[in-house]
Amino acid sequence: MSERKASSESQIPENHVIVLFGVTGDLARRKIIPGLYHLHLAGLLPKKYRIIGTSREKSALTNDEFRSYAKDAIKTFGSNKPEGEGWAEFEHSLSFVVSGDDDAKALHAAVKDAEAEIGGRVHRLLHLAVPPNAVLELITMLGDAGLNENSRIICEKPFGTDLASARHLNEVILSQFDELQVFRIDHFLGKESIDNILALRFANRLFEPLWNRDHIRFIEIDVTETLSVEGRGAFYDETGAFRDMIVSHLFQVLGFVAMEQPVSLEAGPLRDEVHKVFQTLQPVNPAHVVRGQYEGYLDVPGVAKDSDTETYVALRTEVENTRWKGVPIYLRSGKCLKQSRQMITIGFDEPVMRLFPVSKQEKGWRGNKLVVDFADPGSIHAQFLAKEPGPLMHLDSAEMTFHYKDSFDSSHHLEAYEHLIFEAMLGNRSLFTRSDGIDRLWEVAAPLLDKPPPVETYQQGTWGPVSADRIVAPIGWCLK
Ligand code: BG6
Prior knowledge:
The chain is α/β, with parallel strands linked by helices and 480 residues long. Helix content is 35%, strand content 20%. The protein is built from 13 helices and 15 strands. A nine-stranded mixed β-sheet has the order 14-13-12-11-7-10-9-8-15. It has a six-stranded parallel β-sheet with strand order 3-2-1-4-5-6, with helices on both faces. Helix 1 (26-41) links the parallel strand 1 (16-21) and strand 2. Helix 1 packs across helix 2 and helix 8 crosses helix 9. The longest helix has 26 residues, at 233-258. Bound molecules: 6-O-phosphono-beta-D-glucopyranose. 6-O-phosphono-beta-D-glucopyranose binds next to loops.
């Protein structure tokens, strides 16, 4: 099994047949198909590959229809135009097969044919972008059809809705696939800026010596969205912001922010360190949680008229280990908010002695902040105090900034899905989640799932319920 190389040599995956389940769904159209096309143009797909789209009879396509569907998806959502030689080659690799309701024989035959066309040793990558209620049945079907042989399988979140369902899902997956074949995807871990947390912390002496409870006053992770849940009401109403974002994504990001230095970047050591963070992450205390619901949510098609699902959640938690004990960790995410932002803020303590007077406008804390903006293409801002020019010793805030787009060649940039599909083809699981980690996160989530505080309504276009300010008092939200 190949694992992640920390060298500059780029690897190209071995020949593959890629099967996209749920290919007519939103995720495949927005991310996966345009992503595969970009990988093709970047020369990061295998030398020989075939892409088979599949779905149930009711959304069946012919090969030609699939190709024009893919072209349209790339035109609408991709960063590269589907034209010229690049498109002709990619288009040639595409075909479509219907998956039966209870068997995958036709699909298996199509995979075999594609493998014979390629010739020699060929891997299979099965990407399951299907609704959660279809996953269990599909996995069993894949096993019955022999599609679990020589395959790697990418499973989309959500991994269950609580500890029991996550365990059951995992049992079913492991009844058909070996753990080494399973790639549980959290696309946040594929974002450049999240991967870059490892570089920021462990390749630089500048930050890591301060990266602990002796110097850090708080950690805040915000993923706020202006988007509503329009178009996914039924799914969202059963899920809510806490499961959809905190359990699935923000906890994973926290794993990278809070972990100890792994002995290497390979999947084993890296994921062990993330797991240790989860083991010491404190169960979510409902008293430190505010849940909100935006005005108008109840009118979204698919949402129950009396729903108390949260579209916003803010909470305080803690990682109780030697490095972090006593440092509050604030996590916040919501829909229909004032801005779409994805930010990690590390708030540093003030110097032990205050040499400079504090102005009247400044309230309390005036420590430095390191802000990682991880929305693609990403940036990092170090906020500190500097002397204002002039005869007086007045301090004002200043900033040092790194922008990915200005500092590196953006043509090398891979979107989260592209990055992760590429890593899966190489067999590298470092940026994929582990089932014991997922189980632990559901344990951490359980007290809130059992006793959620009531939802508070908030106006669209605001920062959510005002009462969430108490979670971060006395400092206040960094993003406001
Ligand atoms: C998904 C959630 O996993 O992540 C969505 O289900 C959310 O609700 C999305 O909008 C955010 O991801 P990104 O990377 O598109 O900002």
